[in-house]
Amino acid sequence: MCASGSVTCVAFSSSEWPLSASFSNALCALLCLHSADIVQKANSGHPGAPMGMSPAAFVLFTKVLKFNPSNPKWAARDRFVLSNGHACSLLYSLLHLTGYKAWTLDVLKTFRQLDSIAAGHPENHFPGIEVSTGPLGQGISNAVGLAMAERHLAATYNKPGFDIVDNYTYVFCGDGCLQEGVSGEAASLAGHLGLGKLIVVYDDNHITIDGETHLSFTEDVLKRYESYGWHTLHVADGDNDVDAIEKALLEAKKVTDKPTMIKLTTTIGYGSAKQGTEGVHGSPLGAADIANVKTKFGLDPAQSFHIPAEVAAAFNHVEKGAALEQAWHELFHKYQAAHPTEAAEFQRRERRQLPADWEKALPHDYKPSGPALATRKTSGNTLNALANVMPELFGGSADLNPSTFTYLEKFKGFQKDSYEGRNVHFGVREHAMAAIMNGLAAYGMFIPFGSTFLNFLGYALGSFTLSALSGFQVLYIFTHDSIGLGEDGPTHQAVEKFMLCRETPHVLFLRPADGLETTAAYIAAIRHTHGPTLMALSRQNLPQNAGSSIEGALKGAYTLVDCAGKPDIIITATGSEVEIALTGAAKLTDLKVRVVSFPSWELFEKQTQEYKESVFTQGVPVLSVEAGTVMGWSRYAHASIGMTTFGASAPAPVLYKKFGITADNVAEKSIKLVEFHKTHPVAHLLQRPF
Amino acid sequence: MCASGSVTCVAFSSSEWPLSASFSNALCALLCLHSADIVQKANSGHPGAPMGMSPAAFVLFTKVLKFNPSNPKWAARDRFVLSNGHACSLLYSLLHLTGYKAWTLDVLKTFRQLDSIAAGHPENHFPGIEVSTGPLGQGISNAVGLAMAERHLAATYNKPGFDIVDNYTYVFCGDGCLQEGVSGEAASLAGHLGLGKLIVVYDDNHITIDGETHLSFTEDVLKRYESYGWHTLHVADGDNDVDAIEKALLEAKKVTDKPTMIKLTTTIGYGSAKQGTEGVHGSPLGAADIANVKTKFGLDPAQSFHIPAEVAAAFNHVEKGAALEQAWHELFHKYQAAHPTEAAEFQRRERRQLPADWEKALPHDYKPSGPALATRKTSGNTLNALANVMPELFGGSADLNPSTFTYLEKFKGFQKDSYEGRNVHFGVREHAMAAIMNGLAAYGMFIPFGSTFLNFLGYALGSFTLSALSGFQVLYIFTHDSIGLGEDGPTHQAVEKFMLCRETPHVLFLRPADGLETTAAYIAAIRHTHGPTLMALSRQNLPQNAGSSIEGALKGAYTLVDCAGKPDIIITATGSEVEIALTGAAKLTDLKVRVVSFPSWELFEKQTQEYKESVFTQGVPVLSVEAGTVMGWSRYAHASIGMTTFGASAPAPVLYKKFGITADNVAEKSIKLVEFHKTHPVAHLLQRPF
């Protein structure tokens, strides 16, 4: 950045490379101030990192990155991820300066205000932002997914002379992102996979919120990344040495068999009176200090958000971006002529159109007379059937393929010598698996899936929440979903995870009871395009229930067994407990009983009031049966059978008995509930005042 | 392990070191078979790792580990953690063979059966088991906490000539534990802190569930641990070379300024026909293969669970352990004479007794006329006041001290040159923070605390669930608990985390509304000795509410403002929304309104039915107000104001308005609710059939 005061803004055209040092400095200074001004205007935000990273951002966005501001979704663009999302004022400045229409100067002035696209942390819903960042470690891990996406599509669609898929993924991150375990998991996998087109610029600014990094972070970061199989570089003077930054980026691009980590040693808040301290991390500089910085860099301290025309022209990427995209379209048209089938499929995936008749590929022929099957098994069959007709299905397991049945039998493993493979061996890395799925979804053209035992959602929750918040269509195929897994015991048995999924916005949660409901679960998941789906699947075998139907399950809740006239009681259950509810109901020969299978609250909520009331009839008490926490069921049920403690280690049938989730207990409690409501009114749970 | 068939079991006394190679081999073979027999008997479990790790286990438990089987809780014992908990049949065999009374041969035969202490994965509730493991990566991370505990207590209580605290922490782990991000976070911190008495033995057996490690895990593990600042060693033949294993352990013990990672290359299921494959990981060997293994090692294939007397004697550690403990007690008695104050405090902490009058140290003098304060701030004051009288309070922040106010002002940072410090700089490592707290709690003599923003509970959930399952008294002091944090936006705003805490067994969840309720929260947390407490605290300032009381808050829910006679409506709220409920209620001049502050569901559930009904009077509709998901509130409320979506980025007051959590809306919805119930019966939510 600027070493001394005086700055000359010279006229500039995009062909004048290399820039003179003084001009580079002017741009850097501007960027830094721009970012600081934004934070100051909002009187909230993080100026330090944007200021320190400005030189690198300048080089990347004006000299290296392939993008078209007029079409933020251009398929062949390089991907840029600001993993240290709190530095977003820098990104927003760049999006404005390079020419994204949505990112006007007025928008920048609404930083952190309601309904502004200049949100407190970058949100993927807005132009030019690939993934939502802020929670540390996510962006860099998403980037591994973005880079995997590129490698897989390139291996799948590129043909000799037609590198239609050929982009890099760049990441900016800070110390915080590298301290988080999720990034370590993802980086280890990226090294294993040899993702050579992934380039990370690490802002080594020695400062965290608590103070200097020597308080908690003294490891040798580059050595660690080398141990993962990465190529590493160091730029010693990230504040000033734009040439070295450019050289490092170009060198990184040349190493295509390993991801690159560039350590960029910088001064946080460079130029501020508080530079190099945690004081500049998370609070505005204040008017006096901003004036001081501007004066120091030879700019007018009286002006804010001021962009000289020459500088605007220097950053503007509109023409160059349009030319880049145009060239790609020309290539693609030739590709289309030479390889029409591949081109059509590529475009179909780009448009997120589903292949014709995809639903027909699914198993529809389960019969009550057929064999009992675990829903993890029916899921495996369904996933494989779908994957055969939907190349966008791509994913794998966190080292539990033999248990979760998510291996796509007809396809190879995704490895550095077989990027065309569609089975990802994520390793025992649940958090990175989820973060990588988010990256794959963000790239576009993928419906990623990942599997593990349901309880290990706890490891992945940071990224799962972001799947939901980002509205990414990601399939969490999580098995061994309750005490029904038996002997592995309480460390492996989910108790509270069903409700956690149900209460998380945008999540479609499904707990199918048998084969047909599993098919329904996949149909719903493929239709649920703007959020993640989590399927909770059984380890144990379950019968094919009489009355089970795909159509019914797609309504979320439906009647499996009914009685004549108004029931005395409705017993509702999900997943593996439907069988128990049915057996319990059959014992209630003196009562009129309806049994409702309830695989998905979210699907049920979307039905008409009339349909809802046809399932849960007003005035009839409802008993819920589910091997998860009973908390939350008061929304639909007047009483519940379920878990109020953690599970235990024993064979599954023994555990069901221990925790009272049995047909006998269903019958007994049903009678009690009916008795109780002879003297207590039955609340109508589906009718609410607001 | 045994290289060839014939085995001679020679007589043995514990002084006969070194053992002859053949005798070592006999013991190893026995251990391996023992572990395999256990799994075979249960017809469930994981024989591979126990067999592969038997030689190392043999060396550690007979030659290195300091412990007394007759007193599993002896304070000065070395700690052993089986991080790859699925290998627990090995641990259970060791506990039996070394002489833990509870671990009889009959108990081993109940492996994975209901109520057996030989549970499917090790549970800390049972003798000889320090921490519950099974979810990978946890044990090794807990061990960092165990090792920190030792360093801190040694620095605090040891005096010249009196090393009363002086133990090592040993860990066995596999590839899976090292792939998990949480272990990377913890290992980086362990290296930073120079925890020289932490020794990890890594079972490098090349196999994961999906197949060979080359599918997903090809990093250079030792280089990675070196980058963290660890001392590393490699034993190339972990199957046979017991001398090399012993040498490595002794060498590791000598390096006291760095933790040590010993990579032990082994063959999974060594001796089995399926050795070296994933087939031996998670399923019993089968009778034929066990017979084959036994024959191979020169043992009688017809016998199971057979322990020759000589071998039993060789492992038996009862006398040696008693002598070790006796020697320590003698030292401690002398210490007691020389340093009575320290000894008394040490013993008080060992007994988990609280210091006299600890409650008096807490702030009790908040008044409605006093200043509005964020509960993160009142928490900071309370925590500091408590820490001054309770040396067992030890912890810190995941790099958010300036925001969460959990720095103990009168004490130093816990660093390698100041282990007496009580402020841990966890770094941006939420998951490791929680795992380390579990380790500190497991050591005993600590009430650990950790802080971050509430939403980042999602990063730590794997360990949080284990805090609960393990019944560890751990304080999660989590701030910025809702949309009230404002501009940082939805990535930072918890929506579903309150209910997640409430539905997790053993968790005490508290959301105090002001200073007095914060004091109550700490009282409840200190009293909640057998599970974690999570406090959700505000970023924004909150008034000191009229009617607020410590006594009331300790009942979980209590009336803040009441009306004469039976109310028309009860408005209940938690934390930062209590103020809004009060203001809303004040607008309802035409209704009789009661306002209930409801800081803790768990505390309320423990009250008498009479008390509960005095708060939530039968027949009166209840409106809940909380800036979290409304799901779950149907347990106590007939209607709810709260969140049904994720938050947004804007100043907090703007967000409260956007999401309808305002006094005006409280008033409006109260009227609606009262109107609604003029024609609908009011369900009595506190009276249930079962």
Description:
2 copies of one chain form a homodimer. Chain A has 690 residues and is α/β, with parallel strands linked by helices. Residues 1-19 of chain A have low confidence and may be disordered. Chain A has 3 domains: 21-319, Rossmann fold (3-Layer(aba) Sandwich); 358-542, 3-Layer(aba) Sandwich (Rossmann fold); 550-679, Rossmann fold (3-Layer(aba) Sandwich). The longest helix of chain A is centred in the first third of the chain and has 22 residues, at 21-42. Chain A is elongated, with a radius of gyration of 28 Å. In chain A, helix 21 (577-586) crosses helix 25 (663-679).
Average pLDDT level of chain A: 94
Question: Assembly state here?
Answer: homodimer
CATH topology of the largest domain in chain A: Rossmann fold
Instruction: Kindly name the structural category of chain A.
Output: alpha/beta
Uncertain residue ranges of chain A: 1-19
Helix content of chain A: 40-55%
Most extensive chain-chain interface? A-B, 127 and 127 residues
How is the main sheet of chain A built?
Answer: 6 strands, parallel
Name given to the CATH architecture of the largest domain in chain A: 3-Layer(aba) Sandwich
Q: Strand portion of chain A, in percent?
A: 5-15%
Q: How many discrete domains of chain A?
A: 3
Q: How many runs of DSSP E, i.e. beta strands of chain A?
A: 20
Give the CATH superfamily of the largest domain in chain A: Thiamin diphosphate (ThDP)-binding fold, Pyr/PP domains
